[in-house]
Amino acid sequence: MNTYPLHIDEAQQKVISSLSHTTQIIRVPLQESAGYILGEAIQADTDVPLFDRSMMDGFAVRSEDTVGASFEQPISFRVIEEIPAGATPLKQLKQGEAARIMTGAMLPLGADAVCRFEATKDAFQTGVIEMKLLAALEFNENVARQGEDIRKGSQVLTPGMRIGAAEIAVLATFGISEVPVYRKPVVAILSSGSELIEVSEPIQPGKIRNSNSLMVAELIRQAGGQPLLLKSTSDDIDLLTNEIKLVIDQIDMLVTTGGVSVGDFDVIPDVYANLEAETIFWKILIKPGSPFRYAMRGKIPFFGISGNPAASFVNSQLFVLPALRKLSGQSVANLLPPMSQAKLATAQPLMLSAVKQTRFLRATAYLQEGILNVTTAEGQSSGMIGSLVHANCLIRLDGGVIANVGETLPVLLFGEVHVR
Ligand SMILES: Nc1nc2c(c(=O)[nH]1)N[C@H]1C(S)=C(S)[C@@H](COP(=O)(O)OP(=O)(O)OC[C@H]3O[C@@H](n4cnc5c(N)ncnc54)[C@H](O)[C@@H]3O)O[C@H]1N2
Ligand code: MOO
Ligand SMILES: [Mg+2]
User: What is this structure's pTM?
Assistant: First the structure.
């Protein structure tokens, strides 16, 4: 184990390199597949579109027949049939002929362009047998060609992609109602602390409600893990050990909150030792969240995150979620949290302690005149949760720095950014 606190970058690399991703594939119904990581490549077994089709409500024509058409000199066409979407055309277009056609309908043989109703004279009413065209059309105008979107045989989705709305649309298009995905990593969450009471319990002197468990569970759910909430337990080594033992064979990761500093009742190191987990490192040069402890029991990583709620949040963003991305099989260029650059828009410069710690300040990033600005939230103490509610990012400030107003700083975005 390390004898000195680790730099954040080193600590993150140690976590990521200690893990390998799950390869177990399950099949889930398409409508429940969002948030899963795709486990197999998806090949296009047909062209998309499957047939040449109209992009407009109007008339299918041969573009060569439209040359010279204008408002002053319309060209007349004989309407030979009507083709609604979903129907197959019965006739082939010959010179001077048009077919009334709706958006999405199959183009008749012979046609190579579609004119909109708006480019014809008095053609909105149905049943007209003569169409007068007011403008010339180019070859392929208002036509979607077979395979122009996706070619048969091409790989449309690759393993490791996170399934969202767009991927669901593609899977639906190819008739994949059962999706091969990696099983979601199961992450047990256990909050330790004799002061903790359940959310539904009335408040008692000296006690606080357990807010960490559900917060961490939600972060895990959003990142594609399956949270497994254990009952929060007092700072009792045996009780905590047993609580974990009950589930140890069914989990991929363990997150404990609290009990990792140097207090008389900070018993998490003993609990991990009881479970024969090997400590990889303890303490990092960050604030909040410095007493973070990382251990491994065989292949199962144990994340001993700090009990202070804001520290719990930061430890989760910096360690738990990148680890989850790796375990879940997600192929992203960088498993670390996505960083952006934002201009410091506070009234005063940020003055930091000279201690060589990387600070993660709760902050709000917003767009103004195309530039990402950031202001710090009121209340940066590790125990505060109020300031998290209004924050959408964490400003990263490396040790011993003064950040001036207008300076560009790295920010870890975790929420939506709005325009101001
Ligand atoms: N002598 C020292 N004391 C402390 C140090 C230190 O270096 N020397 N480090 C401080 C720092 S920094 C942090 S961060 C905290 C970390 O404490 P623990 O991780 O051991 O967490 P606890 O002691 O269990 O609790 C801390 C704080 O958080 C509240 N808490 C705990 N669990 C929950 C929960 N599930 N939901 C809401 N709030 C929770 C708890 O009541 C405490 O107030 O240690 C400092 N001390
Ligand atoms: O690491 Mo603690 O969260 O700095 O207060
Ligand atoms: Mg403590």
Answer: 0.92
